[in-house]
Amino acid sequence: MRNFKWEKYHTIWLFLLIGWIFNSADRSITGPVITWMIQNHVSFLQDAANPYALGGFLGSLLFTGYMLTQFPGGMLGDKYGYRTILTISLIWAGIATLLSGLFSLLIVFIILRITVGLGEGAYYSNDRALVIEVTPYKKRNLGMGVVITGLAIGLTLGTLSVPYMIELGENILGKHEGWRMPFIILGIATLLVGICLYGLFKRDKKEMHYRKAFIELFSYSLLFLLAILLIYKVTDWIGLSDWMVAVLELILAFTLIAFSLRGKNKNTSINLFSKNLLLMYLSAVAILWNLWFFSYWSISIVTSTAGTSFLQATLTAAFNAGAGILGYPIGGFLADYVMKKNWSKKSLLCFLTFAQGALTITFGFYLLSGGHSVLIMGILLFITSLFFNALQPISHSLTADMVEPKFRGSAFGMWNLIGEMGAVLSPVINGALRDATGSWIFPVFLDGIIILISFILILFVSTKSPGFKLIKRQEIA
Questions:
Q1: Angle formed at CA 166 by CA 165 and CA 167, multiple of 5 degrees
Q2: How many CA atoms are closer than 13 Å to the CA of 288, on its beta-carbon side?
Q3: In angstroms, rounded to a whole number, what is the distance separating the alpha carbons of residues 312 and 340?
Q4: Which of 152-166, 252-266, 268-282, 385-399 has the lowest mean pLDDT?
Q5: C-alpha dist (Å) from residue 82 to 132, 222, 408
Q6: What local confidence, expressed as pLDDT, does residue 140 receive?
Q7: pLDDT top residue among 49 and 61
Q8: I need a labelling partner for 250 at 20 to 30 A (CA). Which of 100, 134, 340, 469 fits?
Q9: Exposed/middle/buried for 356, CB within 10 Å: 0-12, 13-18, 19+?
């Protein structure tokens, strides 16, 4: 620290971190707000026969939108500049989140939640690529870890602040209208951060193609929105279950991405779909499944298991989200350290993934044994999440090592697009399992099994391939 000097890339890290705080809070408040609405029998959830399944389905629709713009967002970042897409993403998300709190009709709420996801889906891939672009090679893993700490802060903020924002909303808007306030407050905050990001990037004096980039991103998003709504209305008319709708949305995602890839040259396909990259993409499914299982339902898990109040369960569940504030930078630091020592990042990733899976299974056995201590739940959630968050920057770093720099936005978009399969399916399937079994034990065990499958996939990733070594040498040089 004695020789520390604040560099320009540190400023970019800081603003991207703040962007993560608010765009992740925008997404994470949906679960706690819906849990509160179910418990208080308010608004459009009060007459639902299976409220947890419906609540999970609403979350899955948001993540479907978020999933669908991952790859197009990264591809547009490679084309128009990462700064351009990042700015558009935050301003878009802020406006859509704000509007989510102003309407009560179910279909309008669904459209706005999908729209939030569509806007925020372009953030991840461009954030990862910009951190790598502006950061010295020996510090880029730490940079990715530090910046994505904003995700954990946002999840913690979204989880902890919901009861207080709802209480404020009840005082201002009325007893049954308090749910609106989290969307209003965070929507305004996200919009302001987006405007600040615009000002920061404007000082770089780089050519920013906002109009062209927005038109292309809007065109993709409008197509995706109409397709999601068509599936939703048709399957609702037929009477398919919510989890079947989620599966159809995944099929839609890959159909539309295949359409997006038409006409791309062979070099693009080779760079984005090597065996190693496909294994990394598939291993990310467990990351996103776990992230949005606990982010979406952790309050309900603690409430139903320990019989606590909504506020106490919120505080306990925050241990899961809060661990990322330590876990993400620790993961980035460890990745830089093993790279400096010429050790294996893959081995480190395998260890952390296996440890997380084993701890999740342990949590499941604790629930199965009838455990209901809020303290023990908080400790298990914190330790498990610490491993979980530490592994993510390492996964990002390994992915970056496998692809040429000019394709990084697209590769990160594909990593998160395929990973988002987990986010789309997790809330609705786990909500349906909770309705069917009356317990969160089976969803927790399922989560642990999926994580261990991810561990097995990573074992087959080769870090000795010629392409991997060539890109790494070019980056070091």
A1: 90
A2: 24
A3: 43
A4: 252-266
A5: 11, 21, 11
A6: 86
A7: 61
A8: 100
A9: buried
The pLDDT, as a whole number, for residue 472 is 55
pLDDT computed for residue 108 by the predictor: 86
63 with 152: CB under 8 angstroms?
Answer: no
The pLDDT value given to residue 343? 84
DSSP code, position 265: -
- The burial of 5, by beta-carbon neighbours within 10 Å (0-12 exposed, 13-18 middle, 19 or more buried), is given as exposed
Contact between residue 324 and residue 155 where contact means Cβ atoms under 8 Å apart: yes
- Single out the residue of 122, 64, 126 nearest to residue 89, CA to CA: 122
From residue 33, alpha-carbon distances to 37, 147, 167, 313 in Å are 6, 27, 12, 13
Enter the DSSP assignment of 5: -
pLDDT of residue 270 exceeding 70, the answer is no
The per-residue b/e assignment along 62-79, b for 16 or more CB within 10 angstroms, e otherwise, is: bbbbbbbbbbbbbbbbbe
Using alpha carbons only, what angle is made at residue 427 by residues 446 and 63, rounded to the nearest 5 degrees?
Answer: 125
Alpha-carbon separation of residue 347 from 314, 394, 415, 463 (angstroms)? 35, 10, 20, 10
pLDDT per residue over 326-380, tens digit each?
888 999 899 888 888 888 889 999 999 999 999 999 999 998 988 878 888 888 8
Cβ atoms of 374 and 86 within 8 Å: the answer is no
